[in-house]
Design brief:
The chain has 5 helices and 5 strands, in the order βαβαβαββαα. The chain is of the alpha+beta class and 135 residues long.
Length: 135
């Protein structure tokens, strides 16, 4: 059973902020292995990966298709431009404005009217990436 997941590393976020990308950098992927083992192995030499959100039972979706679908709508960090990523694909730079727009549009389509400022959190970023990967 394949699992679509979004993970983050505090070390990757700090690196992204230091090189001028953003502190909002997340790893999107699909795996059939146990998620704890995948997170423990890590990516690109960064440590401390934590699972933000996962979508179970995404039958028929593979890692490359999920990344390609999300990359059509969200900026994927090109591993060729940043040698520190060591060729790892599926690392996305997401802006808070993109997530806020997604939340507002989702609420409007659902007929929910809320006023006030939207405070985006890591699960909101993960929902945004998962939504775009499944489209």
């Amino acid at each position: 059973m394949a699992v679509l997941f979004v993970a983050r590393s505090a070390e990757l976020s700090k690196w992204g902020s230091d090189v001028g990308l953003s502190k909002h950098v997340y790893k999107l992927g699909v795996t059939e292995a146990p998620i704890k083992e995948v997170l423990a192995a890590g990516w690109s030499g960064f440590v401390g990966w934590t699972l933000i959100k996962k979508q179970d039972d995404v039958a028929g979706l593979d890692n490359d298709a999920a990344i390609a679908s999300a990359a059509a709508r969200v900026k994927m960090i090109d591993p060729a431009l940043y040698p520190r990523l060591r060729g790892e694909t599926g690392i996305f730079k997401v802006t808070p404005a993109q997530v806020e727009n997604h939340i507002v549009l989702t609420r409007a389509l659902a007929g929910v009217q809320e006023s006030g400022e939207i405070k985006v959190t890591h699960p909101d970023f993960a929902d945004f990436l998962i939504h775009n990967a499944l489209r």
